Here is the input.
Amino acid sequence: MAFTHRRVRRVRQLVAKRAMRRSEGVLVAEGADVIGAAVAAGAPVESLYWAPEAAGMPAVSALVDAVIDAGGRAYPLAPGVMERVADTVTPQPVIAVIGHEMAGLDALDGATLVLVLDEVRDPGNAGTLIRAADAAGATAVVCTAGTVDPTNPKAVRASAGSIFHLPVVEGVPSDDVVEVLAEHGLPTAVTVARGGEDYAAVDWRGPTAVVVGNEAHGITAGIERQADRRVSIPMPGAAESLNVALAAGIVLFEIARQRRVVTGPEESSDLAPRP
Amino acid sequence: MAFTHRRVRRVRQLVAKRAMRRSEGVLVAEGADVIGAAVAAGAPVESLYWAPEAAGMPAVSALVDAVIDAGGRAYPLAPGVMERVADTVTPQPVIAVIGHEMAGLDALDGATLVLVLDEVRDPGNAGTLIRAADAAGATAVVCTAGTVDPTNPKAVRASAGSIFHLPVVEGVPSDDVVEVLAEHGLPTAVTVARGGEDYAAVDWRGPTAVVVGNEAHGITAGIERQADRRVSIPMPGAAESLNVALAAGIVLFEIARQRRVVTGPEESSDLAPRP
Here is the structure.
C-alpha cells in the first residue's frame, strides 16, 4: 500500500512538473482514447492506473491487456485516488505514464512541412495544433522557448495522441528559429491576422515552415521581421479573427491540398474552381 | 442592496437556464472582449456588472461608457459576488446581460452558405463553430434539436462575439433539416471522417449548407441518408480525425477560397497550383 502511495505521488508530480517529465523522459496521458492512441503508435506505456469505475469498461480492459503485453504495468486505484492525481475537475477513469522524448533539431532534416508554435500559451491550443499538424502530414512541430509545454497533460489530451505521431522540438529561442529552419532548407511563413498575402495565392509545393503566434499578441517581432513571407486568411464575414488552431489548420490543409493535386494519385481532379 | 441582490440572482439564473434566457430574450456574455464585440455589433446591452478588480481597467471603463451611452445600465459588484455569478472557475471581471433573439427560418431566405451543427454537445465547440462560420462569411447557422444551446455562456465566449454577427436558428429536428434547407434552395453536404468525396474537389460556388456532427458519433443517420453529398478531408498524416471545429473551418474556408477566386476582385490570382 505504501508502495502504491509512492507510485501515485510520482504520477501526481509528473502531472504538475515539466522538469520531472523531462528528466524521466516520460509524459502523462489521461483517458482511454489518448492512451490507446499511444499504444497504437508504439509508444512505451510504462504504467497504467485505473479508477474503480473503470473496472467494467471494455476499452479499459483492452488497454490493460495491451499495456501488459507490451511489458508495461497496470494498477487499480482505490476510490477517490484518481481525483487527487489527475489534472482535471472530472478526471478520466484511466491515466498512464508513457515514455516520450522530445526531438532534437535533426528531426528537421529533410522536412517538407513544419509547424512552429511561437509563444502559444494555452495547452489545449498547443495540443490541437499538434493534432492539426499531424493530420495535415507535417514532418515535425517546433515550439519556441516561450511556448507552453507540449507534454502538459492538457496538451497531450488535446493532441488526441498526435504527440506520439510526430517529432516535437522545444525550446528554440524565437529570435533564432527562422535561421534554424533556413539551415534545414525551410523558408518561413508567418500567419498574421491581416495585411499578409492571401494564403491561398501562395505556391506551397516546396518545403516550408508555418508559424502561428500567441493567442493575444500574435507572432513575436523577431520572427515576423526575419520571416520569408507573411500570409493572412481573408475573412469575408464580420469576425475579427480566427482562433490560432483554426488559422493553422486552414493554412496547413491548403498546403496539403496543393501538394495532393500535384503529386497525388488523382491528378485528374483539378482543384481549381471550374469555369 | 436587496435590489442588487435580486439583480445578481437573476444573472446567475440566466447563466444556468436556457429556458429563462429564451423567455426573456437575452443571453449572458462574460469578458470585456466578447461584450465589446456585442457593443460593436449593435447588440442591446441591457445591463453590465463589474467586479472590484475591474475598476481600473481601461477596457472596462470604455465598456461602461459605451453601455450607458446606448441606454443600458452598469453596476459594480461587491468583492466575491462575481465568483458566485459567473460560469467559470476563474471568472472574467465583467459580465453582461444582452438582448438576443434566436432567428427564424426566414434567416435562410436567399442564403448562400449555411453551417449546420448536428448534435454538437460541447459549448466551446459550438461557439468556435459559430465564429468560424462568421469568419468564412456564412449567411446563417442552424442548430439541430440535439445541439447544445448556442447561448450557453461558454458558447458565447468561444464565439468571440460572432453570435451577435449572424442569425442562429435552433431546434430544427435532425430528420427535417435537409428538407428545410432544400426548401430554401440549399443542397446539403455532410462532413464525414472518411469515405466521402475529397472536399477540395467539390465545386462549392453555388449555395450550400455544410453539416458537422457530434464530437463522438458524427452526423445523425437521417441527415447522412438524406444529404446531397458526403465530403471528407483527406489526411496525409497519422492522426485519425480532426476536431469538429477544425474540420468545419477547413471546409468553410475552402468554400470561401473558391468563391473568392471566381467572384473576388483579384481575378488574376489563379489559386490552382502553378506548374
